[in-house]
């Protein structure tokens, strides 16, 4: 379990202070025992699995449900699964799901109201679901969780629903051995190696010598699991192999984002005509916000039955791309797609710093992959920078 109080108060605003821990080797043949130990300790395991043509996160009963031998190929607006040449369990990057769907579900009842003699009796919903063990959390996703911790647990108004789920969760990170073409976590300082915020971290090692996992303990809770596993000693050779796995992912990183002065650049370019060009392509479909592991906007809906004696209030994900999102009397504040895309990107990469002290983007690349028209925020940032520096205007003059 990660102590959310520590997460918010210690170190940087959103990162848990790292507990240095033991390191050891778990052979692939003994990997099933990780499932058995987690299940014996009462955890419901959630991890990657193949479903509906993608690798997504769902509850798992056995390691056989992991995406064994599968990988993913991603580009702007494109996702394809492919077979690998080996039997890697974690040989993919990230799919359309993020862990926020388990910590901050897409739809969730807040309370029920029943008419009584003296008005309505309110029954608030409390979390009584399972203690999750999240298996396969990537470094960028750890950072995304830390960002959402700050949103939901920082400040005066703590979200009790998020807190219950978050505090009971066990986090098992997996260091990336493969980066996607839409990944840019190294630009955002969030990956590809898990730094903090995990209970256990694995690095998958596959070579002609065999298939094993280097395990690193990140917390006391993780240590309890570690001690129950048939761990073998890991030496310099294994550590070197694990470093090489992460180095390979770093080398494959498909995208980059120049963050130098980016916040001020976005503030300076609020009226840049480039926003209009993006708006001509953008469908305002909200996919980018749904797949983003840090987006947290929601709305509430009330429902009553026909008798009028029972009512329920539900919270569901919302998006700054919908017209209703900014609806106040008289209409929506952000009427145009231009205004809505500008709001989203400026929030992610600029105003988030003023609001929460960090970037709102961890470089996972999901918004690029899952945008149906392939809009790429790294490209949009580059175009704005070029325009800001007068390069576009110069180019246009030269052409004319
Ligand atoms: S803005 Fe895009 S790349 Fe950044 S965290 Fe969200 S989905 Fe990932
Ligand atoms: S940027 Fe892409 S994913 Fe986001 S709202 Fe526009 S079309 Fe949809």
Provide key terms for this protein.
34% helix; 15 helices; globular; alpha+beta; binds iron/sulfur cluster; 2 domains; four-stranded antiparallel β-sheet; seven-stranded mixed β-sheet; 400 residues
Architecture overview:
The chain has 15 helices and 15 strands. The protein is α+β, with helices and mostly antiparallel strands and 400 residues long. The protein folds into two domains: 227 residues, no CATH class; 128 residues, no CATH class. The strands form four sheets. A seven-stranded mixed sheet has the order 1-11-10-9-8-2-3, sandwiched between helices. Strands 7-6-13-12 form a four-stranded antiparallel sheet, with no helix packed on it. Strand 4 and strand 5 form a beta hairpin. One iron/sulfur cluster binds next to helix 11. One iron/sulfur cluster binds next to helix 13.
Give the CA-based shape. globular
Low-confidence stretches: 1-19
N- and C-termini, Cα separation? 62 Å
Overall mean confidence score, pLDDT: 92
The main pleated sheet reads as: 7 strands, mixed
Radius of gyration over C-alpha positions, nearest whole angstrom? 23 Å
Portion in strands: 15-25%
Total domain units = 2
Which small-molecule ligands are present, each listed once?
iron/sulfur cluster
Structural class: alpha+beta
Number of strands: 15
Roughly what percent helix? 25-40%
* Tally of contiguous helical segments: 15
Strand order of the largest sheet: 1-11-10-9-8-2-3
Query: SSE order, as H and E?
Result: HEHEEEEHEEEHHEHEEHHHHHEEEEHHHH
């Amino acid at each position: 379990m990660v102590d959310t109080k520590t997460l918010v108060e210690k170190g940087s605003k959103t990162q848990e202070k790292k507990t240095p821990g033991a390191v050891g080797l778990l052979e692939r043949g003994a990997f099933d025992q990780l499932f058995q130990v987690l299940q014996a300790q009462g955890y419901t395991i959630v991890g990657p699995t193949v479903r509906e043509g993608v690798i997504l996160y769902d509850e798992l009963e056995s390691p056989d449900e992991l995406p064994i031998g599968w990988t993913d190929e991603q580009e702007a607006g494109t996702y394809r699964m492919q077979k690998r040449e080996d039997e890697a369990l974690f040989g993919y990057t990230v799919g359309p799901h993020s862990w926020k769907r388990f910590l901050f579900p897409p739809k969730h009842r807040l309370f029920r109201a029943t008419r009584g003699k003296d008005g309505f009796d309110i029954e608030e919903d409390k979390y009584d679901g399972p203690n999750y063990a999240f298996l396969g959390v990537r470094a960028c996703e750890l950072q995304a969780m830390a960002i959402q911790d700050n949103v939901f647990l920082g400040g005066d108004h703590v979200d009790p629903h998020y807190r219950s789920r978050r505090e009971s969760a066990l986090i098992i990170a997996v260091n990336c051995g493969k980066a996607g073409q839409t990944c840019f976590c190294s630009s955002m300082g969030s990956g590809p190696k898990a730094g903090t915020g995990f209970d256990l971290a694995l690095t998958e090692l596959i070579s002609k010598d065999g298939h094993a996992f280097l395990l690193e303990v990140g917390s006391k809770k993780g240590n309890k699991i570690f001690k129950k596993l048939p761990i073998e000693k890991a030496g310099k050779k294994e550590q070197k192999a694990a470093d090489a796995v992460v180095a390979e992912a770093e080398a494959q990183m498909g995208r980059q984002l120049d963050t130098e002065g980016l916040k001020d650049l976005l503030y300076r370019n609020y009226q840049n005509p480039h926003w209009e060009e993006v708006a001509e392509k953008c469908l305002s479909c909200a996919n980018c916000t749904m797949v983003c592991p840090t987006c947290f906007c929601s709305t509430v809906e009330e429902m009553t039955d026909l008798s009028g004696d029972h009512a329920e209030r539900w919270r569901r994900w919302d998006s700054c791309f919908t017209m209703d999102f900014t609806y106040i009397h008289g209409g929506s504040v952000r009427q145009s797609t231009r205004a809505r895309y500008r709001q989203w990107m400026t929030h992610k990469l600029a105003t988030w710093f003023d609001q929460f002290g960090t970037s709102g983007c961890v470089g996972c690349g999901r918004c690029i992959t899952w945008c149906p028209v392939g809009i790429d925020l790294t490209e949009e940032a580059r175009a704005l920078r070029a325009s800001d520096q007068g390069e576009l205007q110069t180019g246009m003059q030269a052409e004319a």
